[in-house]
Input
Amino acid sequence: MRLNLIAAALAASALFAGIAAHADQLADIKKKGELVVGVLGTDEPATFIDPKTRQIVGYEVDLVNAIAKKIGVKPVLKQIAVAARIPELQQGHVDLVAAGLTHNKEREAQIDFSLTTFVTGQKAIVKKDSGITDVPQLAGKKVLTIRGGTQEPNIRKAVPTAEVVTFDTSQQAFQALQQGKGVGYVDDEAALLRSYAKLGPQKAKYVVLKQNLSTEALAIGIKKGESGLKAVVDDTLRELEKSGEAQKIFVKWYGPNTASGFQTRDFKFESDKID
Output
């Protein structure tokens, strides 16, 4: 009996030790020497594959590279689907998610978020010959967007009678618009303007509607309760802001001389609070 009690105590101790070891994900990351980050790789200019180098680059890549440098480990990017972002993080398949992830109240119950890293609106683009000039006119029409993001619920909320058709990637959805499979395409403004710019002379056949469907605060996703990891992520972002590097990274990927053409940066890395 005494041996059984000792064995049970040792087993419980080992179990506790195992739980304690996994309670600090930051320590695990340092131990393995890698920061595994889930990215889309199809969301230019946030994360996309450079056609020359075949490497994943972009705005969010620069941010996670800075975080990995701060921790002192190698960044490892893992492409994931939009719908898999939160499950991949919760199941421990990635350490962070930097994948155009909107921070909202519903998701706060599932994961933690870094300081806001980007603020954008969601917009719709339509073919000019559709005659559509504002969002309400999408009522009863077929609208195309990405599966698993906030774009789908936002267009349903803004235009309840729209027929929403979803695709795995923004490229697939935008291509469907060009093929006439719907009258409108909805995405984050930055990504949508990048797709619009790529149309070249064909741009004259399309119109980006002025009205925003929503305002989105994007952030890096962190597994629930990993306070040590969140602290180092937020500290890195604050240091980027203070040094001016955050502004340089924004201008590099979204500034006036890019296809996105943003004239100003109207947000800072300073808060993880949302309305």
